[in-house]
Fold this protein.
Amino acid sequence: MLLGSFLDLGVPRDVIEEPLLSMGLGKSFSLVVEEGHSLGLRGLRVCFKVLESDSSTTRLQEIIAIVQGSSWNHSLRDKVLKVFSALAEAEASVHGKSLEDIHFHEIGDLDALLEVVCVCAAVEYLNPLRIFCSRPPAGSGNVNTSHGVLPVPVPVVVELAKRHQIKLVGGGGYPQGELTTPTGLALLALLVDSFCQPPLLDIQDVGIGLGRRIFDRPNLLRVCLLDETETAYFSNSNQQFTWQELVLQEAWIDDATPEDIAHLIDELRKAGVIDVVSHPVHMKKGREGVCIKAIVQPGLAESSRSVWFSKGTTIGLREHSDGRWVLSRRRGTCMTPYGNIGVKQVRRPDGRLTVKPEYDELVRISLETGKSLEELRYEVSSRTESFSPNEEWN
């Protein structure tokens, strides 16, 4: 369905076939592309007919050898290897084996290799500044595999979602069945920049890929080509705004002392939350309470949850997905009359680089010199030319 969408979007057929032919697989498959409909909506259906079944590849080492021996450009080789490495690592974790001992089972046959190479080649051809994607559906029910009947989402999909922090959408709004496959999720995990809707949708073209299963709704996957002048404004490529997914946790507490509240906030900060705020609220029966909100990175949400319930008095915690746009920044040091001090360098939308000294550093120097924080802040901020980074832009 991904491949059908890219071909429908205008990716030339020879772009996706050439990498396969250069691998010597021309006699192993035929590519079938046909226009069709799903509940009245048109699109392209694509499938590979494997002609030589003994050409299947089941081990990561074999795939690496084939890809590294190809004449592809470095970027395409890197994309394909990353996708299969992600699949192998997930398989290894699910089966409790090393990477060297892993067979890919259902995702290791020839058509999986063909699909991954072709999708990556299509992305190479389009060369997008940034790829956005809606959250993939979890699916439900059961599926037959070489391991017997397994619940949906299957174990490898669950492992990929966990490893790459991809939130799957569940609930009764989707039809039953396997709606996200391991190969599909691995492609999304390695190719997609943000699992959210972009802030502006200036759509230039649309490609539709059709599936073969029949649901109570059109079975299609849609790829939209957006105007680069709009998406570039929010792209990592020019190091301006970057979308960062967050989790917002909140509790209203009316049975804790001010000291208890201060301790809980301090423990949340120690747990690595980005920030914590609190303000008074009027709760039921006229009781005075405190609303505490914590902004958390998704990977730390579980550990901060434990802090709420072990260090605080609340017995319930509200939580929902959130996010923010942030400027590119990096930490480093600036040379000052008081020695090297820690600062944060920020790239502004107009290209200017500004530095902001760390608060703890200013307090330390203020105590040593007697100068005010405002005076020191101005003095350090004017020394951008002496900045020395100690980390990459993020």
User: Anything to note?
Assistant: Residues 233-239 have pLDDT under 50 and may be disordered. The two ends are 33 Å apart (CA to CA).
